Amino acid sequence: MTYWFYYLVKWILWVFFHLGFGLEVRGQDYIPKTGPFILASNHVSFLDPPLLGAACPRRLRFMARADLFGKPLLAAFMRGVHVIPLKRGEGDLNAIRTAVQLLHHGEAIAMFPEGGRQLSGQLGVARRGVGLLAMSAEVPVIPVFVHGTFEALGAHATRLSGAKIRVAFGPPIPYTKALVPSTGTGDAQPMAEAGDRARRALHERLAEIVTHEWRRLAASRTST
Q1: What are phi and psi of 116, to 5 degrees?
Q2: Predicted structure pTM score
Q3: CATH for 112
Q4: Structural domains in the chain (count)
Q5: What residues pair up with 167 in beta bridges, in sequence order?
Q6: CB atoms within 10 A of CB 25
Q7: Which residue, 132, 64, 126, is CA-closest to 93?
Q8: At residue 103, what are phi and psi to the nearest 5 degrees?
Q9: 196 backbone dihedrals φ, ψ, rounded to 5°
Q10: CA 41 to CA 121: how far, in whole Å?
């Protein structure tokens, strides 16, 4: 698989965001030079995916709504940068399996675990899907907070406007950050149900940590 188109687009976007929005990036040292990880970002604008592609020093594989592939030009572009189609709200196991396989091969997956753009421009909360993927692949999650993209191209904007755009990467969150509680002993069915609840609790706990890190990165932005 070749990635020349990805790197060409990345260079163009880097120039675009630097010249047009004075892009400022912090925390790039938290991105490992090799090995798999999940990049978990807040999401307030259509600018966020290309922004992360430009700001992250590693090549990323994005997960995006499958319905976007119904638009021919956009679909061709997304295939060119190797986007993974995701059926939102349907428990898309095929997309999860694809992402896990890519992570097992050392790639980096970018996702927006709030479940969609926050149309108000305010920070939302991460959903448990990020924990599910991290635990399934046994890889760390790197939180990243983007600011300024809503001001540049908000939910109801019809054109770009000037705004300072910032990206802040945070320290990796180990997938073992929270421990699976003991399910005890007993019959197989109750044990299986207890195990499912325990796994869901762990996924939700990891999502809560991601949200906490977003808030910390947002606060550090305003304090500097």
Answers
A1: 155, 175
A2: 0.89
A3: 3.40.1130.10
A4: 1
A5: 25, 146
A6: 19
A7: 132
A8: -65, -40
A9: -60, -45
A10: 14
